[in-house]
Amino acid sequence: MSGPNTDYDPVEVTTLKPEEVEAARDAALAAIAAATTLDELKTVRTEHAGDRSPLALANREIGALPPQARKEAGQRVGQARGAVNQALAARQGELEAEHEARILVEEAVDVTLPTDELPLGGRHPLTTGAELIADIFVAMGWEVAEGPVIEAEWLNFDALNLGPDHPARTMQDTFWTEPADNHVVLRTHTSPVQARTMLTRGVSEGAPIYVVCPGRVFRTDEYDATHSPMFHQVEGLAIDEGISMAHLKGTLDHFASQMFGEGITTRFRPSYFPFTEPSAEVDLICFVCRGVDPESCRTCRGEGWIEWGGCGIVNPRVLQACGVDSERYSGFAFGMGIDRTLMFRHGLEDLRTLFEGDVRFTTAFGSEL
Amino acid sequence: MKAPVSWIRELVDLPESVTTEVLTDRLTALGLKLEAVDSADITGPLVIGRVLTQDKEPQKNGKVINWCTVDVGDANGTGEPQGIICGAHNFGPGDLVVVVLPGGVLPGGFEISARKTYGHVSAGMICSARELGIGEDHDGIIVLPPDAGEPGDDVLGLLGLDEEIIEFEINPDRAYALSLRGVAREAALGFNVPFADPAERELPAVDGKAWEVVVDDPVGCPVFAARLVSGFDPAAPTPEFIKRRVEQAGMRSISLAVDVTNYVMLELGQPIHGYDADKVAGALGVRRAREGERLTTLDGADRGLSAEDLVITDDSGPIGLAGVMGGATTEMSETTTRILVEAAHWDAVSMFRTGKRHKLTSEAGKRNERGVDPLLPGIAADRVVELLVEHGGATAEPGYTLVGAAPERPAITIATDLPARLSGIDITAMTTVENLRAIGATVTEQDADTIEVVPPTWRPDINDPYDLVEEVVRIVGYDQVPSVLPRRATGRGLTRTQRLRRRIGRTLAGAGLVEVVSFPFVGDATFDKLGLPADDPLRSTVGLANPLSSEEPAYTTTLLPGLLEASSRNIGRGAPGVALFETGTVAFPADNGPAPIYGVHTRPSEAELEKLVEALPVQPQHLAVVLAGERRRAGWWGAGADAGWTDALAVVRRLAADLGVTLEVASTARMPWHPGRCALISIDGVEVGHAGELHPSVCASYGLPARSAAVELDLDAMMAAATDVTPGPQFSTMPVAKEDVALVVDAAVSVAAVEAALREGAGDLLESIRLFDVYTGAQIGEGRKSLAFALRFRAPDRTLTEAETSAARDAAVARAAELIGAVQR
Ligand SMILES: [Zn+2]
Predict the structure, then answer these.
(1) Are B478 and A180 in contact (CB < 8 Å)?
(2) What are the tens digits of pLDDT across the range B268-278?
(3) For the domain bounded by B213-404, which CATH number is listed?
(4) Euclidean distance between CA atoms B692 and B699, whole angstroms
(5) Optimal mutation site among B475, B478, B496, B568, interface A, most CBs of chain A within 10 A
(6) Which CATH number fits the domain B412-477, given the four candidates 1.20.1280.170, 3.30.56.10, 3.80.30.20, 3.30.530.20?
(7) What's the pTM value of the predicted model, to 2 decimals?
(8) Cβ-defined contact of A150 to B542 (cutoff 8 Å)
(9) ipTM of the complex
(10) Does the structural domain A125-364 have CATH classification 3.90.850.10?
(11) For site-directed labelling of B723, which of A66, A242, B192, B692 has its Cα 20 to 30 A away?
(12) Any chain A CB within 8 A of the CB of B638?
């Protein structure tokens, strides 16, 4: 720095003494470093970098210096201010980061608090179960057919080879609507849907029938842990050229493995149903013990097999009544209880839990079976 | 059908290797399903004991007990007499008795141990028939005949307690297996061993002289056989083997004469009736009953007869309900010495109807209504005569009356490859023929590919080629059926309705509702509980002729009762609140007359099918919802909220939004809803249901929290209105302009009306309108309310100016003022 410029106010220019500028800068840097909060830093900023701060005042005096001294003084003050501003910005960043981190810490919650303000909904396992079954068959190219639950006697019985004096009519005790000679019943099985499908759609070249019919059925059973006057069935019907029991077996094996797991197959035992001939009972290999050491198995009760339903080749008399050419086409049919299937698939002890409407039951199953 | 294994083995020569388990497995595979294998539930030691001493010791309670020592040989391991307490008195020293020693287990899991009683250590028990489960007699212990055996001998075999009895479930088409003859025939078939047909008997020549028989109804009674025995000793005991087998079959031993008829029925399958010949007046007749005739049957019931009932008559009128149950007047008794034996073949349908009409199930009826071998009557009668002569000291009177003959069976023509085609098993023509012969059919080869088959007389169930296929395939084995997936199905997936139903269920579950499945049975009390007025259309139901409960004799017209019961059950079990839904069928009477019954040999015509469908009740699908108690739970976050009318409407609106259905909502009054809080829901002016708060009386009667809410909708209508293909929504990305307006209107004016007016006035620039506050109070004035709406405006192509926005808002307010008299606050 050159010597004093006597043309100027000597008091004012003293601030431009190099050591004074340095002192002001150092004081500012020290204050910045000492600031521990954003508020303190704000005060420091006002004091050391504000309009009234020593360095600002010094800067303002540069213009009063003789031109030959301005450059040097300007550089000196500028460097000092630059250092202060840089330190301020850095400290600001540090303190902001600290502040943010502290807020996040302060805002921490107990994530184990309950969050069940909104109630859980759910669809009934009988619904999702029927959908699961339908999906298995739809994936094979079958369709899902439906019909009314209050049904004509002719469709529920006669068309299915259950004549008025057929002993099987007493096997399934029927709810009759009033007046009793109205010939209208609560359907005792979903088979009338099969009859309706054949009657309304018919079978023709290139248009075979492959349908499953899930639905609600009624019988006059007293209500207890294993019987209900209302329950659910799924029946299947295939009518095509060349249909045999082998196709029935293939279909039921596929159904069983989709429903109960890979490798679960079925077996047939001769039986009797008016709408099929030959007829068979279908057993399912126990999906829990798989027939290996079944003695202690609770699911199959030591049998290794679970009784699942009935099936057979559609009786040509049924085809005739429903307008299908029984010389050209043959078919198979099967049926099983959805409720019963759910009972052993899910280990339900009491059939009545399906119809009580206890939300704890339904919500336990989630949105799919 | 219960068949003792020893009896089966008597008729068919089964190898030793065929254990009972092997036998039942094979018979099950052939179609006689194993129900259970009974064997006496006893584990030894059960031995013969000889009573050595018997000390009668009176007790304080007045009873006298016997302190006995009994010789049980070496069965107790010591050879010393066994000390046993016994309360019975029908025996004395020297008698042979049945002793169960400590360690034995009697029926019912009753374990025997040495125990201290009446001041002695009783080491075992002297058994009665009842304790062993072989009879009802418990007045005394079993005293064995003196030659029964030696003390210490095992007695299980002697009493038939080691006998296994197979219980079969017999399907209606296998009536022949309701006899040992039939079961044994299947066993022979199953193991390919010889079968001694007990029906093969030499019969005397028919001379009509056993008794005069007049059959007026040969259709109802194609064959009637009669025989007579005299000099029968009514006091003769039933031989042990007959008694045991009758009891093993689950029937009661009554007297020799009755036991013999039952025994032969079990053996051959032919029901037989024995008359006290001295009580029969004149010729036996067979005819249909006359209306008004009465008959007291063997069970003591006095029955009015129908003109369809087949009866046996003598000069006095009906003396028996043919094939089902005999009459009381000619019943055999302890003085009967002349027995008239009847065995007849009856029309199965008549038997079935008579049994049903009189609510009579009997062993005879069970067989007759399923169909019996028409060749059996004479054979069975002869067998009965033989046993009565042999065991009852009777003399067979000469003469054999047989009216009618077994009807001819038409031959069935069947292609020899049909079993292969229908089973998918490679079954040769030869196997087909062999298997049909094995079941007793007569097979005649027609040509290379066709055979004619006459089924055996005991198989009335076989009438069609497919019936024959089952016979062939069951012998080949159902386990031989291969597993082949059909590959020709070409389905079109789920139907629109099926997809919509799933969607609705998911939407409702997503809204926090839980689905339930309820019974659809209702009665007057159900509707009373809903508070429905007497003339409410919902009370017009499809009635049930035979309801399970007389309280609920109809199919429901509303899903609410089931849901309300389920809600109440949940609340009763401690749920703080429930939100339930159900979808299902309701029914309304069609009153179109009876549904026709058509023939089954051809398809009904289209017009006939239409008539059938028209006769059925109208059965729409409904959806119902009940929301009761806590809807949003209280918690650490603050208070919860109970369900109310708004929740009911929220569910409806959410569903409509999901389905793309535009609903109209209007106030209405309808039970079971609160008259001031019930919304009528419509689509295009057509009612589809109701939603709102339940009437307080309904909440009270179901025990539900106050303000519980409910919805019931016609689901079919909702689904019909659902949008199939949603048009892509158009929306602007220009800035939004918001305006709030508060309007004071008459309290009776609906928000929907104000909103509609604002919407109309605001014009195209209005994007949305939402009510955000309702205020009533002194500032507004009596009978008035202030409604505050948030309006959002947006143009498709530009930022709206303040002037444009205010103009639109002013126009909206002006329209509301004009239409409803709304005043801006
Ligand atoms: Zn198992």
Answers:
(1) no
(2) 999 999 999 99
(3) 3.50.40.10
(4) 13
(5) B478
(6) 3.30.56.10
(7) 0.85
(8) yes
(9) 0.86
(10) no
(11) B692
(12) no
